[in-house]
Amino acid sequence: MQSISKNSAAKTVILGTGGTIAGTAEAGDNIGYTAAQLGVAQLVARVPALAGVPLEVEQVAQLDSKDMDFATWRLLAQRVAFHLDRPDVGGVVITHGTDTLEETGYLLHRVLAPARPVVLAAAMRPATALLADGPQNVLDAVSVACHPEARGVLAVLSGAVWVAGEMRKTHSYRTDAFSAGDAGPLGWLEEGVLRQLRPWPVARSVGLAPLERREWPRVEIVFSHAGADGRLVDALVRDGVDGLVVAATGNGTVHHEVEAALLRAQAQGVKVLRSTRVGAGAVLAKPGDALPSAGTLTPVQARVELLLQLLEGAPR
Ligand code: ASP
After folding, report:
1. What is the pLDDT of residues 269-302, one digit of tens each?
2. Which of 42, 167, 198, 233 could be cross-linked to 162 through a Cys-Cys bond (beta carbons 3.0 to 4.6 Å apart)?
3. Closest CA to 4 of 123, 96, 166, 140
4. Which residues line ligand 1 (CB under 6 A)?
5. Given pLDDT bands bounded at 50, 70 and 90, which one contains residue 316?
6. For a substitution probing ligand 1, which of 65, 167, 178 has the most ligand atoms within 8 Å of its CB?
7. Pairing of strands 117-121, 89-95
8. What three-state secondary structure class fits 244?
9. DSSP at 25
């Protein structure tokens, strides 16, 4: 039976935020369910292998992650940082919905870049499903959080361990719903044992200070597509937007009318980032590009990056 190695006395703190992992439905329905119904203590109680493991639980929020908001992000980042500062805590697990997991993962990666593990656990099936994936994902997340060398913001789903800043949701229904594009998983968790494929993530954090600003900037995402024009961008600029991410085609190409509108926006002081709507690969920057590239970030991660840049008041 999969069990957690008990060679460390350090506690793992499990922070609950809601999501399908905490969702319930009538008669085992896989799609007609309500997310964020069970508390984090109830999720832990459903995993017998966690009995006797030094754990603490805290309910930070209880929402469907499609409704994630700035206040919850701020509180979550603060609570993670608080627990990581405790000498008796070895790592933190966060139960979360899958819908915005890549955004929360990227935010925590940039804000905390922790030297200890912060592991996101989510599920594609509610807790009442016949094949609920949540309990195994929680157990696997705690296994990774207890790994003696683990560090950084990670996520575990369907046995795959992801670097949170790289992953993205790529399937709307299957339980193996995530990918990291070309980067692939950091490793596989098999019966509690990590088969590691590449090193733990190391990053520089921007710290919590930017999140403490009362007013968060407004950053919107616009798509470039066939038949597009610049009216949406112009309307957003008139409406006072602070930043714009364009989900561009292919290698960051933008419909000429949208591009002209983005250049007008940029000239008026709106910060712009160019990502790709493709789902994998990077926007390869060329010398002289008028609109900066978001590299390998997905459009929603690029939006988080732009928010942080605006909150910091200066580019990275
Ligand atoms: N809507 C749910 C959420 O993101 C979906 C999930 O968790 O899979 O909270």
Report:
1. 999 999 999 999 999 999 999 999 999 999 999 9
2. 167
3. 140
4. 19-20, 35, 64-66, 97-99, 122, 124
5. very low
6. 65
7. parallel
8. strand
9. -
Is the Cβ–Cβ distance between 143 and 118 less than 8 Å? no
Domains of the chain are 11-196 (3.40.50.1170), 213-312 (3.40.50.40)
| Coil, strand or helix at 115 | coil
The tokens describing 66, both together, are 């499609």
Predicted pLDDT of residue 30: 95
Distance 47 CA to ligand 1 centre (A): 20
Closest C-alpha among 209, 195, 70, 74 to residue 140? 195
* Residues with catalytic function: 20
Does the pTM surpass 0.90? The reply is yes
Tokens of 258: 């949208």
Summarize pLDDT for 199-231 with one digit per residue, the tens. 999 988 999 999 999 889 999 999 999 999 999
Element containing residue 63 per DSSP (H, E): strand 55-63
Q: What is the DSSP string of 72-90?
A: HHHHHHHHHHHHHTSTTEE
Cβ contacts of 239 within 8 Å, gap of 6 or more: none
